[in-house]
Amino acid sequence: MNSLAGRKVLVVEDETLVAMLVEDTLLDAGAAVIGPAATVAEALQLLNAERPSVAVLDLNLAGETSEPVADALAAMGVPFVVASGYGAAGLPARHAGVPVLAKPYAPEDLTAALTRLPG
Fold this sequence. Notes:
The protein is of the alpha/beta class. It has 4 helices and 7 strands, in the order βαβαβββαββα. Helix 2 packs parallel to helix 3 (67-76). The longest helix has 13 residues, at 16-28.
């Protein structure tokens, strides 16, 4: 059984094509997708409405940092993976232990990273 089956995954990604690919990948893996959210405000609104099991978070959303979303997820105890073109270098120190998926990544890398998260 796939360990993403039945898990709610928040997707925070501002590039439409990437967001669609991520959503398709997660749905194929049996996950329920929350979002995708393209802005920090949208992501925080989704978090207020529904608690995800795990999340995948693009660090740079059209020029704004998604650090407030990372902080909210950490405060809620929701594990997440950061998808970034900048690698771990773009992560703030308080989130240094968060797994990073370097963009571009393969769909199976995303599902494997999320599967490894508790939740």
